[in-house]
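Let's practice the habit of predicting before peeking. Look at the sequence and jot down your guess about where helices and strands might fall. Then scroll down.
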Amino acid sequence: MKITGPERYRLSITSTSYKLAEKFSKRACSHLPKLYVLSVNGSPIYIGQTVRRMSERLGYGFKADGRSGYHGYAWRHKFSAVELDIWYHEDAPLENRALDMETVEAEVVYLIRCFGQWPECQTEIHFHPSSNEHRDAAAAILGTYANLPLRPRSR
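Done guessing? Here is the structure:
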């Protein structure tokens, strides 16, 4: 599993729209499987995955109104600015190409939970059996964030 990134973007947001400080890259506009992390002051608040173009995925999360059961991103109502980091699965299999990144997404969320609480604006997660490769990728991704406790809390 070859995962590259992150590419970092700064977003100014309202509850209904977002504005990028710079344009998305060609990879962000591609259909490569992506894992994206929204953070505030170096602390992850939301982890997601998609095979859509990032602009398309973000637009969907901002336009949702709950009529279909999906209420959109919770973080759009809490913050005026966030950082968006995107990782790419460069060698995803053709069949079920989102599965590995969805598995890594769950492992990142789980690791954050081990530090005390779920990401502040995480509203949904899908769990799949994971391998050491998925868990190692999650640990490497989470290791890029400064504002986490140095070790998981004890029970």
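How did you do? Strands lie at 3-13, 18-20, 34-40, 43-50, 81-89.
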